[in-house]
């Protein structure tokens, strides 16, 4: 806990206005009030008509499974702002032993730890902090899986650390891509991590490739065998993936090459990474046949001053204010297609054995460039895997643990526990 001495103090400065500026000040306040009442704020750029319509249709869903305002009306827990939380953090790397080296910013010397003392506050309602005792009680006899890439593992690490305040799990490794955390002591709750960075079957066919990040074969209609055979064992499946789809890839459907992403080969149609993520997400959501599926939306990278493999870095020490940073480009497309595929899967499920839930963390995380590891994390190379071609860089993709990522479990717990009541 000694590392926490560097945490920030927050001060609010009073500002005063002379009599001459009183009238324009009152006018400005009236304008702000009108905008607030009319709910004019949009969290993402709306220059594309489909982006606006998709967001509005999603908003009705999130209201049905969100928090509650003081007047009892439902609210959207995914729209809000970051506010100071002087009681955080609720665990450290001293109290939680499972933090992966990629996310252990305390251990690797991140100098400004003020990033841990913020919590996500939805507009007009409260999102309770994660309560491990209540969560474990509600999950008694259940199995929850995190399916996806290293950000799915990032999410799972946060959950395990939050639970350590009440119970420690027994850990086992059925395979290098399959980790199991089991809570006994009357809970009989199991957390499973499946490493499936593309969600579907994939093969590394060239460790270098056109972009020096490998060339992959992706079988877009075949859910990854590391997790697909286990779906009937799961009560909850938290699905998330996007960051690996930037890698060049050959795209297959029904065993046939249908195109590629950035393969630079003649006579092969470049279907783009958007198509690859859309079809992989579709296959994953349709593969789960029972229980609850939670699709977590994409987590934005926050490189400034250069690209990820050059001089890009993330050195902020405070969150952005609402509206200062907006999703754009490929990341905006990723977010929109995930919402679209969720809505299509929910419609296809038709109120059957599978319950679909969308966990839209994107708006909250676009504001937290201060909560990435940057250079303050470990990196152990795996022998023989892209060893000659992969350069270690500043990490502005993953999230420090503890940190902003803990809000994902505030949201997840609230969604699941509220839906049970």
UniProtKB/TrEMBL annotation:
Coiled coil: none
UniProt-annotated location(s): Golgi apparatus membrane
Pfam families: PC-Esterase, PMR5N
UniProtKB keywords: Disulfide bond, Glycoprotein, Golgi apparatus, Membrane, Signal-anchor, Transferase, Transmembrane, Transmembrane helix
Keyword Transmembrane helix: yes
Keyword Nucleotide-binding: no
Residue spans crossing the bilayer: 21-42
Membrane topology label: Single-pass type II membrane protein
PANTHER family, A to Z: OS06G0272850 PROTEIN, PROTEIN TRICHOME BIREFRINGENCE-LIKE 9-RELATED
Protein name: Uncharacterized protein
Species this protein is from: Oryza meyeriana var. granulata
């Amino acid at each position: 806990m000694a590392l926490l001495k560097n945490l920030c103090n927050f001060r609010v400065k009073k500002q005063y206005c002379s009599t001459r500026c009183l009238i324009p000040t009152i006018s400005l306040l009236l304008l702000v009030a009108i905008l607030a009442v009319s709910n004019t704020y949009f969290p993402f750029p709306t220059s594309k008509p489909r982006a606006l319509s998709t967001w509005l249709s999603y908003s009705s869903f999130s209201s049905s499974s969100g928090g509650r305002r003081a007047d009892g009306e439902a609210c959207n827990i995914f729209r809000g702002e970051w506010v100071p939380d002087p009681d955080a953090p609720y665990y450290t790397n001293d109290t939680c032993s499972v933090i992966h080296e990629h996310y252990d910013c305390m251990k690797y010397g991140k100098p400004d730890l003020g990033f841990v003392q913020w919590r996500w506050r939805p507009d007009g309602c409260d999102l309770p902090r994660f309560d491990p005792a209540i969560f474990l009680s509600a999950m008694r006899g259940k199995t929850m899986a995190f399916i996806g890439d290293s950000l799915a593992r990032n999410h799972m690490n946060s959950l395990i650390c939050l639970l350590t305040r009440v119970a420690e799990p027994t850990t086992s490794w059925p395979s290098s891509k399959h980790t199991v955390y089991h809570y006994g002591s009357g809970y009989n709750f199991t957390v499973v991590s499946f490493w499936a960075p593309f969600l579907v079957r994939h093969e590394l066919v060239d460790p270098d490739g056109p972009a020096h990040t490998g060339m992959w074969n992706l079988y877009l209609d075949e859910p990854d065998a590391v997790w697909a055979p286990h779906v009937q064992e799961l009560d909850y499946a938290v699905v998330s993936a996007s960051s690996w789809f930037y890698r060049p890839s050959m795209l297959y459907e029904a065993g046939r090459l249908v195109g590629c992403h950035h393969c630079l080969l003649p006579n092969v149609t470049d279907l783009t990474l958007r198509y690859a993520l859309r079809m992989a997400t579709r296959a994953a959501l349709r593969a789960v046949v029972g229980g609850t599926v939670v699709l977590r939306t994409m987590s934005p990278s926050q490189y400034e001053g250069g690209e990820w493999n050059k001089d890009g870095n993330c050195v902020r020490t405070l969150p952005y204010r609402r509206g200062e940073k907006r999703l754009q480009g490929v990341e905006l497309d990723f977010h929109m297609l995930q919402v679209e595929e969720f809505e299509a899967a929910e419609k296809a499920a038709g109120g059957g054995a599978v319950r679909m839930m969308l966990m839209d963390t994107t708006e909250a995380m676009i504001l937290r460039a201060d909560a990435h590891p940057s250079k303050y994390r470990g990196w152990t190379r795996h022998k023989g895997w892209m060893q000659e071609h992969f350069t270690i860089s500043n990490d502005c993709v993953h999230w420090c643990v503890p940190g902003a990522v803990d809000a994902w479990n505030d949201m997840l717990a609230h969604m699941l526990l509220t839906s049970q009541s």
